Amino acid sequence: MAVRKPPITTREYWAPGHAACAGCGCATALKLATKAFSEAMEEKFGDPNAFAIAQATGCMEVVSAVFPYTAWRAPWVHVAFENAAAAASGVEAAWKKLGRKGKILAIGGDGGTADIGLQALSGMLERRHNVVYLMYDNEAYMNTGIQRSSSTPYGAWTTTSPPGKYSIGEDKPKKWVALIAAAHQIPYVATASIGNPFDFVKKMKKAAKVDGPAFVQVHCTCPTGWKSPLEKGVEIARLAIETGVWPLFEIENGDFFNIKIQPPGGGAKVKREGGKIVAIEFKKPIEEYLKLQGRFKHLFKRPEAIDEMREQIKAMWKVLGVEVTLPKPEE
Amino acid sequence: MPIRTVMKANEAAAWAAKLAKPKVIAAFPITPSTLVPEKISEFVANGELDAEFIKVESEHSAISACVGASAAGVRTFTATASQGLALMHEVLFIAAGMRLPIVVAVGNRSLSAPINIWNDWQDSISERDTGWLQFYAENNQEALDLILIAFKVAENEKVLLPAMVGFDAFILTHTVEPVEIPDQEVVDEFLGEYEPKHAYLDPERPITQGTLAFPAHYMEARYTVWEANENAKKVIDEVFEEFEKKFGRKYRKVEEYRTEDAEIVFVTMGSLAGTVKEYVDHLREQGIKAGAAKLTVYRPFPIEEVRELAKKAKVIALLEKNVTFSVGGALFQDFSRALINEKEKPIILDFILGLGGRDVTFQNLDEVLEISRKALNGEKVDEVNWIGLRKEIL
Ligand SMILES: Cc1ncc(C[n+]2csc(CCOP(=O)(O)OP(=O)(O)O)c2C)c(N)n1
Ligand code: SF4
Fold first, then answer.
1. What is the number of the ligand 1 atom nearest to the C-alpha of A56?
2. Is some CB atom of chain A closer than 8 A to the CB atom of B51?
3. What's phi and psi for A163, nearest 5 deg?
4. Residue boundaries of the structural domains of chain B
5. Which of A28, B87, B313, B355 could form a disulfide with B59 if both were Cys (CB 3.0 to 4.6 A apart)?
6. What is the pLDDT of residues A269-328, one digit of tens each?
7. Where does residue B19 rank: exposed (0-12), middle (13-18), buried (19+ CB within 10 A)?
8. In testing the pocket of ligand 1, which one of A18, A144, A150 has its CB within 8 Å of the most ligand atoms?
9. Do the Cβ atoms of B26 and B66 come closer than 8 Å?
10. Chain A: nearest CA to B215, how far in angstroms?
11. Taking CB atoms and an 8 Å limit, are B23 and A67 in contact across chains?
């Protein structure tokens, strides 16, 4: 009987037994990321285990490394909240000196990356360490109880951006760390999503195989912080792509003129010029993404805030060189 | 043959690092320690030191990178001072808790505000509770030697703690003194290659480091840091002894000077010890029964040695370039703790002086002597005294 090859290795590095909430999209992201890494290491060095992980404080750290247990089947070190990139720099330097082949994977949440860890990240990228930095973006500080980060999207409820008489929730547009990373002109930068796991795996493998630093920002759902149904993580993440909220792109060597945008799907009409995507007409309104999450619930009483969100999304796509049309839901 | 030459303490520290052959160095410049990474850059650039030198973007990242490298299983080194050490504060606890034998050279400098680049010990004293071992050098030779010693002690299996070696800003960092650079082969024999048995990031035998511990385990983890500090006391003596055999220079946790039959003993650390010894000579010439003692090792605190010292004195005058507000200096607490339950104990007086690079003169020490003599004669004096204050500008 023919046995079909699984689409991704059955090796597990993020082992069962971690303590993440049911339905945690970030746990899925880490599982996929380490599998992808392992495949890349196998293809590049002939050794699927040729990597080590340096991780920032945050949900994914506290749920995976509770003494005397561990969910990690790879060499793994946690130092603090803001220094995964710096710790990874040290690990990479040590491996270089030890003559150990392989690559270092640094992992941080949006808080540990976009906020308190941004400086260390910049230093690591600028120094060209052979490290892949994976930012799992659940768009708030979940570990400390859902506070806003600079990566929290406009309008979202968090415990420090509560909607109220004088507040629509988070009142600043999201900070796009991938673009900041790309400004370092490093070999590889990508955004990804657990809503498109094949694309994510492909990008992680690519990131792991380049020589030098790479940065991947993966959008991953957090049912606890997003107040969303446990079973709908992948669906919600996919809706973020299909409504234009979450762009998927790759930037190589800091070349912003050659941003590779992945078509979003979901019936969106894509216009190309010379092979490049220059315009996207989204078919699904962002409301379809928003309505599945309690963190945006209050916005439905404030349609002007959703319109503002649309404007911000358009502006963000413009930076990527794409004109987008975002539909309003039919009345 | 060891080379006798002249150099600044910063250079001596860089030389010590070179001789210890760390595989990873990560550093960020700060006055007065800047010359250490500069000199190391030269060594690396000239191929004299085969190490990865990470030119990090901050001290926080410097020590974080050292933790990463040390966790990956290699010998690591960095240098800093003052605000730089303060910026490392968070990670210093982590390095000790993870039992990583990192060595840091500290050009002891005051802390802001007001900003001041000159010497006192507030920077490393403020880190006394991080679990790190602390050595203080009296001169440039000691700066070099103590860094080698620090590596050896830190990497001892009974210890496995990070260590810092302090040497006074400008007084030592920028002052040229005769220094003997030991032979590389002898240093190699002394230190050996670092072989990690507890911290490594090896795909062949994956381990998880830097975990979360619940209340069920945290306290025990902290206790092991306590225990390692206790173990370090004996290990330091052994390493001092071995160092003496190999290099001919003798070190003691508490070095005593003319304490026999002394009534007043001045106790201090760092370069001030040199001044104080001279002052004691000067007093002895006048027939005053004075002695001096220097703490070469401040953490682990040498309680036993301090108790022995206390038996020889009627007054212990602590000369401190640091302040613990509302209490006195840090040594004052440590000495009080060491002697509180002793049956017979001397009077302990605390003198805060030399902050922010203010010179400590014989005149200042005369003031210390006068207060100490009053106390000796049963007169009431303040326990904590600020010496050399310019009261007219207060
Ligand atoms: C210096 C410092 N400040 C604050 C904290 C508390 N803290 C730990 S994790 C965390 C938030 C983590 O958020 P993020 O990086 O987004 O990861 P997530 O928890 O969402 O997975 C905070 C604020 C800390 N550990 N260290
Ligand atoms: S709070 Fe969110 S990110 Fe954290 S473990 Fe739970 S679902 Fe995952």
1. 15
2. yes
3. -70, 150
4. 3-247, 254-393
5. B87
6. 999 999 999 999 999 999 999 999 999 999 999 999 999 999 999 999 999 999 999 999
7. buried
8. A144
9. yes
10. 10
11. no
- Terminal-residue alpha carbon distance, chain B: 55
Each residue's pLDDT tens digit, B216-259: 999 999 999 999 999 999 999 999 999 999 999 999 999 999 99
ipTM: 0.95
pLDDT for A5 equals: 87
For chain A, the domains span: 25-263
**Token pair of A294, please?**
């309690």
Instruction: Tell me whether the CATH fold assigned to B3-247 matches the one assigned to B254-393.
Output: yes
Architecture of domain B254-393: 3-Layer(aba) Sandwich (3.40)
Element (H, E) at B257: strand B254-257
| Ligand 2 midpoint to CA A135 (Å) | 15
With CB atoms and an 8 Å threshold, state whether A126 touches B24.
no
Both tokens of residue B201? Answer: 């990031």
The CATH number of domain A25-263 is 3.40.50.970: yes
CB atoms within 10 A of CB B79: 33
The closest CB to that of A65, out of B60, B71, B212, belongs to: B212
The whole-number mean pLDDT for each consecutive block of 10 residues of chain A, a chain of 331 residues, reads 87 93 98 98 98 98 96 98 98 98 98 98 98 98 98 98 96 97 98 98 98 98 98 98 98 96 97 96 98 98 96 97 96 66
Evaluate whether the domain defined by B3-247 bears CATH number 3.40.50.970: yes
Q: What is the dihedral of CA A34, B55, A178, A150, to 10 degrees?
A: 100
Burial of B343 (0-12, 13-18, 19+ CB in 10 A): exposed
Q: How far is the alpha carbon of A250 from chain B, nearest alpha carbon, in Å?
A: 27
Q: Kindly determine whether residue B208 and residue A122, on different chains, have CB atoms separated by under 8 Å.
A: no
User: What is the least distance, in Å, from the CA of A129 to any CA of chain B?
Assistant: 10
Contact A102 B214 (CB under 8 A): no
Residue B209 identity: Q
